[in-house]
Amino acid sequence: MSMRIRIAAFAMAGAVSLAFSVPALAEGNLAIYAWADSISPEMVAKFEKETGIKVTVDAFSSNEDLLTKLQAGSSGYDIVTPSQHFVKIMIDSGLLEDIGASSMAAYQQILPEWQKPWWDPTGNYSIPLAFGNAGYTVNRDVYKGPVDSWKTYFEPPVELQGKIASLAQPDEVISAAQNYLGIKYCSEDPQEMKRVLDLLQAQKPYVATYSSDNIENRIGGGEVGAHFWWDGNSMRVRRNDKAKVEYAMPKEGLVGWLDSYVVPKGAPNIDNAKKFIDFMAEIDNATAEYNYYGHSSPVKIDESKALYNKGNAPELFPTVPVKMSEACSPAAQELVTKVWTQLLQ
Q1: Are 236 and 316 contacting, i.e. CB atoms less than 8 angstroms apart?
Q2: Contacts of 335 (CB under 8 A, 6+ apart)
Q3: Which residues 6+ apart lie within 8 Å of 298 measured at CB?
Q4: What's the DSSP call for residue 91?
Q5: CA 89/CA 96 separation, integer angstroms
Q6: pLDDT tens per residue across span 40-77
Q7: For the segment 181-223, what is each residue's pLDDT rounded down to a tens digit?
């Protein structure tokens, strides 16, 4: 998941209403709840101009926060963008509209490997937006050592002790710890999860903060030397801010994610939601979105206009295994919650 931070305070320029001289163009509203800084303001403005639909975009900073809002009911949003394992949870919980996604124009733009995935095997509920992975980023002014293992992050050397930052939520952090320890995701074994807790508790004295906000300033400015983060976000700070940061490629594997457009149950503007999803999957628009967001695209883009490649954006082309997060059973999720609660108490 920010850019894909997941930066909590975020306002989209597309929320500004546009005035049209032709009243017939005005076709209502569309409310989007997405990872912060994930939807191109340029594409929002273009969609508003072409359709007359007024778009507002609000931001969330974790899948957990999004799920809580949908579980509360009547969110008022027409599109939300959860990660794959939370799409599965939301479908199973009856929180999403069946939009007949596989019959939409956007579906034809999806790369074959992302069609009817395990989290939406019928292809009824979701259209993918972006994919990538979670790992850790180091500031090379602070730390000059190796970044080929999660050991650097979870069992930090002296120069990183007190200068590590984590996320505020357990989802990807615990999965990364499981990668490091060789434990399968969604373990229901209390002894295995005790090993995860022991690792995180041993790391805790060296963690400066558990926060999912303001990551780019914290790591880019050298306030911390290592931060749990996402591939494209790290790439953007390196390229755009010219910060001396490096995204690690731990041999034990990165934590994979794929965010999708889905429509909450009872959304007030389902037709407008589907129009926007189709619009964003059009190849030129998908390319512009890719260039803006800086995460890998699961839909077709125009490679000749793409800004990022293996040469200038190695963060987006991992050289180590990427293990996609899974939708855990209630028993496994309870253990995750217990580990995180005990860690932060």
Answers
A1: no
A2: 187, 188, 190, 193
A3: 110, 111, 114, 128, 129, 130, 131, 258
A4: H
A5: 10
A6: 999 999 999 999 999 999 999 889 899 999 999 878 99
A7: 999 999 999 999 999 999 999 999 999 999 998 999 999 999 9
